[in-house]
Every structure is written in structure tokens, then in C-alpha cells.
């Protein structure tokens, strides 16, 4: 279902217009985008992920030291937490929090509220952004 929806909306550009009709096949205006070398809906543009926000790589404090983790400290979200959050729009904290010691040891970052998280798997490693 998700693949079909993606195809209709972002390949065929037949997402629902303001009247609930398929945009392109109902005469929605298309314009040529030189960067993408194809037509796209009027009002759409092209931006890289870097232009949309700040990319921050994640890391993990040493799990060998129990002093790095707690249940009530600095909220910390892992790829596992995100994978278990399917169907929810927001996540406030993960299974574990990190302590000040763990925070400093792993050079973690505090991200602003409403940040977007993504997990990218490359080779056999997980990266959380």
C-alpha cells in the first residue's frame, strides 16, 4: 500500500488536489525543473537534506559502564526506540536515559523539540540522525 501511494503521489504526481481530485491527471500545472530534469507540480522545489536542517550524527555511551545510563535523567533515543515507535508521530524518550557522565563521554547533542529523526543503515552499522 505504501509503495502504491508513493508511486501515485511522488512519481505520477496524482496526490489529491484542493478538490480531492488527482493533481496531474486533473490538469494540475506542471513546471520543468532543471535540476531534476523533469516536470514537477507548480510550487514544488528541490532541496538537499542539508538545506532543510542540520544533520547530527548519533553515538552511544559505553554500555560497559552502568553509570552512563539511568531511568530518569537526560532523554536518549536509539534506533531500537524508533523502530518500536511505529505508528506514533512523536517520541519523547527511549527505553533508557543517559546520565551526565554518559552524555559527556559520548559527546551527545541535545536536540530541540520537534526535531526529525532518521535511521540510516550502511553496511552493518546503524546511524541515527
UniProtKB/TrEMBL annotation:
<dbReference type="Pfam" id="PF01420">
    <property type="entry name" value="Methylase_S"/>
</dbReference>
<protein>
    <submittedName>
        <fullName>Restriction endonuclease subunit S</fullName>
        <ecNumber>3.1.21.-</ecNumber>
    </submittedName>
</protein>
<feature type="domain" description="Type I restriction modification DNA specificity">
    <location>
        <begin position="41"/>
        <end position="116"/>
    </location>
</feature>
<dbReference type="GO" id="GO:0004519">
    <property type="term" value="F:endonuclease activity"/>
</dbReference>
<keyword id="KW-0680">Restriction system</keyword>
<dbReference type="InterPro" id="IPR044946">
    <property type="entry name" value="Restrct_endonuc_typeI_TRD_sf"/>
</dbReference>
<dbReference type="GO" id="GO:0009307">
    <property type="term" value="P:DNA restriction-modification system"/>
</dbReference>
<dbReference type="InterPro" id="IPR000055">
    <property type="entry name" value="Restrct_endonuc_typeI_TRD"/>
</dbReference>
<keyword id="KW-0255">Endonuclease</keyword>
<dbReference type="GO" id="GO:0003677">
    <property type="term" value="F:DNA binding"/>
</dbReference>
<comment type="similarity">
    <text>Belongs to the type-I restriction system S methylase family.</text>
</comment>
<keyword id="KW-0540">Nuclease</keyword>
<dbReference type="GO" id="GO:0016787">
    <property type="term" value="F:hydrolase activity"/>
</dbReference>
<keyword id="KW-0378">Hydrolase</keyword>
<keyword id="KW-0238">DNA-binding</keyword>
Amino acid at each position: 500500500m505504501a509503495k502504491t501511494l508513493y508511486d501515485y503521489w511522488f512519481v505520477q504526481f496524482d496526490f489529491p488536489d484542493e478538490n480531492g481530485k488527482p493533481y496531474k491527471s486533473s490538469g494540475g500545472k506542471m513546471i520543468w525543473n532543471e535540476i531534476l530534469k523533469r516536470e514537477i507540480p507548480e510550487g514544488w522545489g528541490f532541496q538537499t537534506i542539508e538545506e532543510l536542517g542540520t544533520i547530527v550524527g548519533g553515538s552511544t555511551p559505553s554500555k560497559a559502564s552502568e553509570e552512563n545510563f539511568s531511568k530518569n535523567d537526560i532523554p536518549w533515543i536509539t534506533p531500537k526506540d524508533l523502530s518500536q515507535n511505529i505508528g506514533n508521530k512523536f517520541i519523547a524518550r527511549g527505553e533508557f536515559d543517559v546520565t551526565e557522565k554518559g552524555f559527556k563521554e559520548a559527546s551527545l547533542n541535545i536536540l530541540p523539540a520537534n526535531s526529525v529523526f532518521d535511521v540510516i543503515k550502511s553496511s552493518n552499522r546503524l546511524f541515527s540522525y
